């Protein structure tokens, strides 16, 4: 089994990983780097639980091979905020009670983070569209929508 | 994840190395770009290549869109997100934008390429009907040079294309001199958001006639043309229009699957083509 050395930037820090050709970014994050905030669910690009930013764009880390990422920059939920210092978006999820079981939330936050970086003041239809790749099986969508709107409304303050 | 044997991963920087890999490994060499279908195929064991040839760092393959007087060329590595954001694509080929925007989610479109969507050759590929109705041509490059063909001839059947051994896509060209007046893409799904098409239809009214292309209702997407002007005429007898579209729909041979029965699809082919055509005509007469 051949192994590939990949050097990439994760949450602002350089990392070198030895990965096999078919190992996904998701598995590398969870098993090699212990960054378990990124969740594994459907593993085929349907649910969005594994969403991370790759060079600033939201992607499903289950559909990206680690070998493809030499020289890339990856941001995971751990790079967005810490328990003692949450991002404005994470605070908004708490303020709106948008977190139920919580499993989809890291992916939701990453997709919403990418949206707000791209469009600071999206309308409701745009938010729904841009989060349509993220499933919440608790069906907490109205509160998730409100959380993104709250964070958006605070963006200029 | 159960794997028979780990493939090798190559990331060539020039086409010459791609050709060498594909010649050496033959059908067990798998060229890919965005990988959104390929990674799922690997995981499910449907793909078991000996070498994976990542095309993303190949300098001679374009990541962007080039426009001249007669063509708009979409480079092989152009992602669907870049495609739908391009002002010339948006103004000249709105139905392709509508179709590309239905592929998966934003996370998928940030990775997936237009060329990959066509090479994957799913009968339900969302972008295929739009490319067929706009008369797109695909350019294929190998060590022996470049050859071109209509996208309609490139897709042969489920998971089968005209791509030869040692060949990769160079780009997809859309004609800018066809006099496209109005176009629209319509898609039937079980739910909004991430889902595969039950039926998809693209209607394009241009100088040569009205072209209606169909997806997810036959082993491969197909396009039919009305040169008589009946479909393009907003004042045409509705019965005549319906008869034409019903005749077109007879070319469909849908199957029953979890997204819909054969009979339902056969009925919705006509409904979807009426909707797509109506929107295309409305756009045509918009000042």
Q: What does this protein look like?
A:
The complex is a heterodimer of chains A (157) and B (287). The N and C termini of chain A lie far apart (53 Å). The model of chain A has no long low-confidence stretch (mean pLDDT 96). Helix content of chain A is 32%, strand content 17%. Chain A folds into two domains: 76 residues, Roll (Ubiquitin-like (UB roll)), CATH 3.10.20; 66 residues, Orthogonal Bundle (DNA polymerase, domain 1). By secondary structure, chain A is α+β, with helices and mostly antiparallel strands. In chain A, helix 2 packs across helix 5. Chain B folds into three domains: 47 residues, Uridine Diphospho-n-acetylenolpyruvylglucosamine Reductase, domain 2; 111 residues, Uridine Diphospho-n-acetylenolpyruvylglucosamine Reductase, domain 3 (2-Layer Sandwich), CATH 3.30.465.10; 103 residues, CO dehydrogenase flavoprotein, C-terminal domain (Enolase-like, domain 1). Chain B is globular, with a radius of gyration of 19 Å. The mean pLDDT of chain B is 93. The interface between A and B is medium-sized, with 32 and 27 residues.
Mean pLDDT of chain B: 93
How many β-strands of chain A, per DSSP?
A: 5
From the N-terminal CA to the C-terminal CA of chain B, the straight-line distance is 56 Å
Put simply, the count of helices of chain B is 11
Radius of gyration of chain A: 16 Å
Architecture of the largest domain in chain A in CATH? Roll
Estimate the helix proportion of chain B, in percent: 25-40%
Quaternary state of this entry equals heterodimer
The total count of strands of chain B amounts to 14
Strand ordering within the main sheet of chain A: 2-1-5-3-4
Low-confidence spans of chain A: none
